[in-house]
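Before the break, one more example. Copy the sequence into your notebook; we will annotate it together after we see the structure.
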Amino acid sequence: MDYESSLNRAMDEVPDIGGDEQRLQIPDAETQKDGAFTRFTNLGEIADTLSRKDEHLHRFVQRELGTNGKYEDGRARYNGTFSPTDLNASIDAYVEEYVRCSECGLPDTRLVREDRTPMLRCDACGAFRPVTKRSTTSQTQQQADAVEEGNTYTVEITGTGRKGDGVAEKGQYTIFVPGAEKGDVVDIYIKNISGNLAFARLA
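Here is what the structure looks like once it is written out:
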């Protein structure tokens, strides 16, 4: 077989992948507030768009938000109150770390493991590299928004709990404040914390 025939055959076997990195259309995160939790109702759809496993995306989002959660049937639920902007930021971070090729910028990659090391293989340019962990400001922000028992904070009451208590949000924490009403800005003393829920009294 001559060189030109070999080249043509090789080109025929190359995946038909375009060069438009903007074609990856990721749906916006859809959320529902559910008491002290936030539901991420279309996580499964987004994972499908990214060609990644639902559980893998869920664990990443959970880590980025600095909270606990549960995933089932395409929907996730996380402890705390998070906006679509928060979830979209987590998805963007996931794409940069686990989807987009660092060489050509295209999303045509596969996540594989080699000797227990997660690797990103690009079908567009052939790049093959270990997944690079990002250094983000997430942990710094979480520390700034941390809530600790025995400390006093100034918060805005943004809602009302099922028992009539005032509800405030600080970082990943939902804080219940008896005697406070929506719209109040109050000083509170944290009595105890359970997971991402905090219970306070007016200071």
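Confidence is low (pLDDT under 50) at residues 14-21, 135-140. Residues 14 and 123 are 9 Å apart (CA to CA). Try to locate both features in your own notes.
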